């Protein structure tokens, strides 16, 4: 069997183990210490955010952002339907209701027109949404100009889920630094990884201070353990933060490598008109975390994204359908949804993520492209 090609495997820079060794040498084997402090500094320097809190996951960061915005039982939160469930779950942890909004084709992200429609309709029904979560899916910028204007117009705070978008920018500014809060993820398959982890970004130091307080069990100032609020155990370990410091030394190269992978596929498959690629909004630079394609079945002679996925899998190559929209998930389908063209559902039905790791070799990429070309030339027979 050929060596397996993964969708987005970890890619270490080299110094990660040095920072882990420092933690052992200094006996900082805890969810605090110099690696945590320095990783937070690295994140601020790289993104331009004023403050960062390193946490156990991106999901924890979203949860804390919602808590800091005072979101609780019965509140409503606007959320793109086209995302990973981790964006939505923390809304439900807070017993609030997600209000799903469809995407547009220009960005694949939350559609400003439908967002406006949703805000107006929820106000008409007697409840103004308490927050707007914007996701930069696959490292592609959402329509930040329109969305931030809309949020300002209605006075709705923004949480930017940049879990997939570290290293991406809009008008030269890092995604994750536009909202009141930004969140990042360092899970195993993201553009950089700490094995698992996340961060909360904000330009308001008091909010990040409060996030750190809540993330360490909400201990009041006292010699004993004293609590006047419910806390969480959401802080990042000093060992894990050592991996993050090593990874931040190579983040710029990782973004370049992912963008090169995207450009390679685009060039190598340009003569197949049934394949189109994910967009990049004007004035933005995506990190191309995953290279995503969409198949036009009228032009493909009936070849579907599933045909391509299975053909790749038969050759030990991992690919994956685009995210299944939240409003179509059994666990979320009872919540309101705003959209008329069902863009997210269409992208899910026709879209595929190709292997996109920054450590892919030229040989790996040739293998992927050869199998895709073969599938288009000899479409699988169907019953
Ligand atoms: C990965 C991801 C998250 C959650 O991050 P974790 O660190 O895995 O908890 C949130 N939102 C999106 C869009 C993601 O892709």
From TrEMBL:
Classify the source by domain of life: Bacteria
Residues that bear N6-(pyridoxal phosphate)lysine = 190
Q: Which SUPFAM superfamilies match?
A: PLP-dependent transferases
Active-site residues, as the UniProt record annotates them: 190 (proton acceptor)
CDD domains this protein is in?
AHBA_syn
Molecular-function GO terms, alphabetical = GDP-4-dehydro-6-deoxy-D-mannose-4-aminotransferase activity; pyridoxal phosphate binding
Query: Which cofactors are required for activity?
Result: pyridoxal 5'-phosphate
Keywords of this entry: Aminotransferase, Pyridoxal phosphate, Transferase
Biological processes annotated in GO: polysaccharide biosynthetic process
Q: Does the keyword Chloroplast apply?
A: no
Signal peptide range? none
* Reaction(s) the record says it catalyses: GDP-alpha-D-perosamine + 2-oxoglutarate = GDP-4-dehydro-alpha-D-rhamnose + L-glutamate
**Pathway noted in the entry:** Bacterial outer membrane biogenesis; LPS O-antigen biosynthesis
Q: What is its EC number?
A: 2.6.1.102
Q: What class of enzyme is it?
A: transferase
Family annotation (Gene3D superfamilies): Aspartate Aminotransferase, domain 1, Type I PLP-dependent aspartate aminotransferase-like (Major domain)
| UniProt record similarity statement | Belongs to the DegT/DnrJ/EryC1 family.
Q: What is this protein called?
A: GDP-perosamine synthase
Give the organism, scientific name: Xanthocytophaga agilis
